[in-house]
Amino acid sequence: MGRQSINNRRSVKIVFWGTPQFSIPTLDILTDRGHRIMAVITQPDKKRGRGTELIPSPIKKRALEIGLEVYTPGNIRVDINEQEQISRLEADINIVVAYGQILPECILSNPRYGSWNGHASLLPRWRGAAPIQRCILNGDRNTGVAIMCMEKGLDTGPVIISRAISISLNQNYFQLSTLLSDLTAKLMIQAIDKIEDYYKLHNSNIVDSTFVKSQDTLEGKPSYANMINKLDCRINWDRSSIEIHRRVMALYPNSFCLLNSKRLKILQTEPLIIDRNDELSAIARSIVSIYGNDKRPPGQVIDIIKDIGIIISTISEPLIIYEAQIEGKKPANGRSLLQQLKVSAGTILK
Length: 350
Hints:
This protein is of the alpha/beta class and 350 residues long. The chain has 2 domains: 3-225, 3-Layer(aba) Sandwich (Rossmann fold), CATH 3.40.50.170; 230-341, Methionyl-tRNA Fmet Formyltransferase, Chain A, domain 2 (Roll). Helix content is 28%, strand content 23%. It has helices at residues 3-7, 24-32, 58-65, 80-87, 105-108, 131-137, 173-202, 241-250, 282-291, 334-341; strands at residues 13-18, 36-41, 46-47, 54-55, 70-71, 93-97, 115-119, 127-128, 142-149, 159-166, 224-225, 256-259, 262-271, 301-305, 309-312, 319-326, 332-333. The strands form 4 sheets. The chain has a 7-stranded mixed beta sheet with strand order 5-2-1-6-7-9-10. Strands 12, 13, 14, 15, 16 and 17 form a 6-stranded antiparallel beta sheet that branches. Strands 3-4 form a two-stranded antiparallel sheet. Strand 15 (309-312) and strand 16 (319-326) form a beta hairpin. Helix 2 crosses helix 7 and helix 6 packs antiparallel against helix 8. The relative contact order is 0.10.
């Protein structure tokens, strides 16, 4: 479909709320489909590292690239001036995708079509700040995206549309987040069309159960995805190989342990679990029968496989490390990894 026919579609006036890279595909598709972005609201610029330079959020960078107005309130719940300024934009709808602050009721209820959030989970499961990380940590076999009508509660609003996707054993946070980000954008476009049709037909700003589904009627019990902190990122080798692997995948690229008192980021692993052979890579399947039953003290290097990686013991089955980053060096895998780490059988990771 050409750009001319896309731009002839109905145009909705939108205030867009978002902050990380995850938000960008939704902003892009809204502008591509000809909707009017009245403003983009994002988190304030932040200092990075030890310098004093302020770095804008990914969504701010993108918004400025395409010529959109950007607001960066420090705390939208208490900043009355910002609330009034945003209300004066007279948007039809608020679209929120990973903004990072709780919106006050005066903002939620201001647009005539209400406020709608693209949330990266199958609600009511994993409400809260870190749904993608928590679903991987928990070993969920599937997740998805839900577009919900926002209300005062934390991700408790009724859902207009949702879609599930499966999670593979070796899928890390970045890979899964990219899939869910793209899915959020596609579902949001569908949702906006449905929302506009509904409100025009009913001439009301109240949604009913024929239009959206209360989370009480959806499958699953409510669970909360608490924010990830630095302690979550430390690997404990006294855990099972599948638990450690999930931590590496979920918190990519930040999981770490210590090697000779230096921080070692673990970037890619695979648990050598015979019972999950069908889910393993070809490399892991070729060695799982050799190492799968090896028992050593947790965190000990069992063996080194040339050009592939390092076999590490855990409280259960061993784990293979394919890629890692020792403090002061670049990420490495294969032969480069073995040359950097200079480990041998019996070396202990802590």
